Amino acid sequence: MKVLVSFDIDGTLEAGDPPGPITMQMVKKAKEHGCIIGSSSDRPLPVQQNIWDRFDTVSYTHLRAHETRHDLVCRLLLE
User: Fold this and answer.
1) Could you write out the three-class secondary structure of 6-60?
2) N or C: which end of the chain has fewer CB within 10 A?
3) Cβ neighbours of residue 72 under 8 Å, at least 6 residues apart?
4) pLDDT digit string (tens) for 2-39?
5) What would the pLDDT profile of 46-65 be if each residue is shown by its tens digit?
6) Whole-Å CA distances, 58 to 4, 7, 68
7) What gap in Å lies between CA 8 and CA 6, rounded to an integer?
8) pTM passes above 0.70
């Protein structure tokens, strides 16, 4: 079974504004343990992608607030 971990950016990740307590090293460790990592944020998608790219951290998944579990599973399968 895959585990999906979705982070809010601002106030949660060290790359946020304000910076949060979760370091990108912590995110990398979660990915190394097999987690699918993504972000759920009000920031525009290109800005979120830039954060992940800048830290060369993880693959990117954006969770949309209106998605149901079924929508998310279907979208992840299509990506």
Assistant:
1) EECCCCCECCCCCCCCECHHHHHHHHHCCCEEEECCCCCHHHHHHHHHHCCCCCC
2) N
3) 4, 63
4) 787 888 889 999 999 999 999 999 988 888 888 888 88
5) 888 888 888 776 555 555 55
6) 12, 12, 23
7) 7
8) no
